Amino acid sequence: MRIAVAGTCGLALIIAREIHEQTSHQLLILSRSHQPGLISQGYQCQVVDYNDPTSIQHSLMGVDTVVSTVTGNAQLRLIEAAVACRVRRFTPADFEGRPALRIQNDPLDRGKAAALALLQHYRGYIQSTVFICGVLYERFSVDGMISHRIGVNTGFANEGDYILDARNMTAQAPVYDQAGNMANLCLTSAYDVGRFVVRALDMPQWPAELSMCGERMSVTTLINTVKSCRGRDFNTQWHTPDTLRYELTLAQMAGDIPRQRRLFTLIATAEGRYDFATPAYLNAQFPDIRPVSFRDWFTRNWASVP
């Protein structure tokens, strides 16, 4: 089976490496620019111009499945080209919470809704699924998930941008939902996302959503886990959706766009947008995949930081 991975961000390369090393599928990496480093490692790469439908269609000849990590208009053109080339399956760049929990005119959308709408429009011609993994562990990485080349354009990919700053031990904690219950979230390492995605390529049928989870926990447990790993106390501001919306109003009045983006992610967390039922679908389907725990991942990632 010929699989095209669109994009060369950190997550794309994790998925590509897993296909390359663990399956007999033919792998093609689509990139906007020449990739001599990847080619020297034995990967087949194709330069693609997302502004040119002919270029995209040429790159998709003979492809069975597209795994996309490109967003916005580039992804919409990729979907159109995949349909034109009779590609059998397409999975969009999503890799977050369940789409049904997102709000209208979502400030965190980045073209996701348009991609899902287009795939729905073409559902008679191409199969698709959304991979749901919650929040990537890498958001809590030393130097942020941007250091893994993940979420580079999101506006909340730097160290300390989401919930907690493990270096300076400060936290903006969305611990309660609107009803006053503890807010929960599901988290997964990018490496385990790659393993689950690649295993799912061989499933005979794809449901509309395929969920996976490294660990489900409350925001309070997340903070306490990092506190325990770091051996230091947090200076924490505890939040409800209402207090976060008040903070958002202040950020809007001040014209502070980066702070607004960070607050949108905290509000989404408090509202349960990164939470879903566990055991997740793919965990149940593939029990031999044992995801790394958040504590083990964090301990390793922060081992060199005093």
UniProtKB/TrEMBL annotation:
Q: Which GO terms describe its molecular function?
A: oxidoreductase activity
Q: Which InterPro entries match?
A: NAD(P)-bd_dom_sf (IPR036291), NmrA/Isoflavone_reductase-like (IPR051609)
Q: Which UniProt keywords apply?
A: NADP, Oxidoreductase
The lineage's top-level taxon is: Eukaryota
PANTHER family listed in its UniProt record: ISOFLAVONE REDUCTASE, NMRA-LIKE FAMILY PROTEIN
Q: Which protein, by its recorded name, is this?
A: NAD(P)-binding protein
Organism, scientific name: Zopfia rhizophila CBS 207.26
Q: What is the lineage of its organism?
A: Eukaryota, Fungi, Dikarya, Ascomycota, Pezizomycotina
